Amino acid sequence: MGVVDILFVRVARAVAGPLLATADTEWDLLLDAGLGVPFRCIRRAVPGMAGRGWGRIVIMSSECGTFARNATAGLVRSVASELSGTGVTVNAVFSADAGDPACVVDVAELLVHSPGISGEFLTVDSAGIRATA
Fold first, then answer.
1. Beta partners for 2?
2. For the whole model, what pTM was predicted?
3. Rounded CA Rg of the chain
4. Can you give the pLDDT of all 133 residues of the chain as single tens digits?
5. Do the strands 121-125 and 128-132 form a parallel or antiparallel pair, or are they unpaired?
6. Distance in angstroms (rounded) separating the CA atoms of residues 121 and 16
């Protein structure tokens, strides 16, 4: 992989059924799509970003339930904390409109040009872009 300054990972919406109706293979796919893929992308991009003292990581996901949102938030908080002081920021965006190209561009530009934002969570919907807990 070449030099990566900005890593933007859009997590595909994966749907799991009720606990007792979800097969192990479905659960494994959900975990890999929601956490495995972003983790592997981040792990590959971070050494170069941290070495150069600048980088932006944005994980964008549809709001698809408490588990998926909390798992993504946990990954982002953990990585943001670990990279604190390196010049690399890590943020999550939860969006009902994640498939809208204009939404993706607006959010990416906001986070790329905001040097002090890291470990934050934004929600994007018809009401606009707002910080969320």
1. none
2. 0.76
3. 15
4. 578 888 888 876 556 677 888 888 888 888 888 788 899 999 999 999 999 999 989 888 765 566 777 788 889 999 999 999 999 989 887 766 555 555 555 666 666 666 556 655 555 555 555 555 5
5. antiparallel
6. 23
β-pair partners for 122: 93, 131
How many residues are given for the chain? 133
Measured CA to CA, the distance from residue 16 to residue 26 in angstroms comes to 7
**Is residue 118 a contact partner of residue 59, using CB atoms and an 8 Å limit?**
no
Residue type for 27, please?
Answer: W
Q: Fill in the amino acid letter for 73.
A: A
Identify the helix (H) or strand (E) that includes residue 62.
none
Q: Domains plus CATH for the chain?
A: 6-132 (3.40.50.720)
